[in-house]
């Protein structure tokens, strides 16, 4: 993800999958507590649907829209943790596993109650 983008500016932007299919609108952005880097986007997938968590690395901001390198079906099947609260380290590990992302080392994320806080909080 482009690191010079204010994560709050992502909120409200349209999001598209790897094939260019519209996913929905970015509802919230979650930051890594240790680095402050935007890590997850919660994308509202429809009027009466839920928010789906999508990793922001290696997503791209293209002409004002967020493009994520995952298929729509994978995103819609992501674990549902609700939005507006912190992601626990266990929830984040479930998301990493769902998207096939391996951590850089074998150490789980720190047990910090504020891990994965929402941008702007």
UniProtKB/TrEMBL annotation:
Q: Where is the composition biased (Basic and acidic residues)?
A: 111-121
Q: Where is the PRC-barrel domain?
A: 8-69
Tell me the Gene3D superfamilies matching this sequence. Photosynthetic Reaction Center, subunit H, domain 2
Which SUPFAM superfamilies does this entry report, sorted A to Z?
Answer: PRC-barrel domain
Q: Where is the stretch described as Disordered? A: 101-121
Q: Which GO terms describe its biological process?
A: photosynthesis, light reaction
| InterPro entries according to UniProt | Bac_photo_RC_H_C, PRC-brl_dom, PRC_barrel-like_sf
Identify one Gene Ontology CC term for this UniProt entry.
plasma membrane light-harvesting complex
Q: How is this protein named in the record? A: PRC-barrel domain containing protein
From which organism does this entry originate?
Streptomyces mesophilus
